[in-house]
Amino acid sequence: MTTIQQNLTSVRSQIATDAQRCGRDPREITLLAVSKTKPVSDIEDAIAAGQLAFGENYVQEGVEKIQYFTRTAADTPLEWHFIGPLQSNKSRLVAEHFDWIHTLDRVKIAQRLNEQRPAEKAPLNVLIQINISDEESKSGILPGELDALAAEIASLPRLCLRGLMAIPAPEEDFAKQKAVFDRMEQAFLALKQRYPQVDTLSMGMTHDMDAAIASGSTLVRIGTAIFGARDYGPAQ
Ligand SMILES: *Cc1c(COP(=O)(O)O)cnc(C)c1O
């Protein structure tokens, strides 16, 4: 077993422990392996250990990896999630290559993705990013803006509204992490009542996965605990 495969095993068992602690079925929680900045050989290691869902933050890098695996692993049912901020001039690449986007926060980009999603592909799965606690961040809508954006997205036939995503401001204390995630869960449950296809609450990273699962996360986005620390190269 490689280090990545050992890491995957321990992340999966931590998910199971977290789920059982709060009476949830671990199978309700999808593990998204966040492979940004990591080479395709690391992704191959993870695939060999049964991991199929991968998250990428940078459009170009993500598309190159998707194309690589379309060539080399066409029979493996991989799922690619775009989880980075999206500028409208890059929306076409996301619409053409990815299966999911977690960071939708503008009507204009929703409309572009809807127009650009190729007819032969299933509708693009969409999560709305909520800015739940991070006043510094420009990404995500405020909770009060959710109803309007959700209605807009739900009206677009080439998009499928699946739920919500958040990246809370970094916080080390479990109770404080959970208080923020609980607000996301409330918004998610309300959305789910209105849109039956809504089933995904994307929250929890390496440092706050336990609290996210305690608050009902159905998808955790884990990079460091699987692939190790990221090296972004020399400062630009
Ligand atoms: C990088 C990233 C992750 C993974 O973070 P880790 O702390 O390495 O687990 C998850 N979600 C998003 C949106 C990210 O950008």
Structure report:
There is one protein chain. The protein is α/β, with parallel strands linked by helices and 236 residues long. It has one domain (3-227): TIM Barrel (Alpha-Beta Barrel), CATH 3.20.20. 42% of the residues lie in helices and 16% in strands. Helix 6 links the parallel strand 5 and strand 6 (159-165). 39% of the residues are buried. The model has no long low-confidence stretch (mean pLDDT 96). It binds pyridoxal-5'-phosphate. Pyridoxal-5'-phosphate is lined by residues 34, 36, 57, 83, 167, 205-207, 221-225. Pyridoxal-5'-phosphate binds at residues 34, 36, 57, 83, 167, 205-207, 221-225.
- Whole-Å distance between the termini? 36 Å
- Annotation field: number of helices: 9
Per the CATH scheme, the topology name is TIM Barrel
Q: Per DSSP, what share of the residues sits in E-state strands of 2 or more residues?
A: 15-25%
Number of strands: 8
CATH superfamily label: Alanine racemase
Spans of at least 5 consecutive residues whose pLDDT stays below 50 are none
CATH class: Alpha Beta
Fraction of helical residues: 40-55%
The side-by-side strand order for the widest beta sheet comes to 7-6-5-4-3-2-1-8
| Number of domains as seen in the coordinates | 1
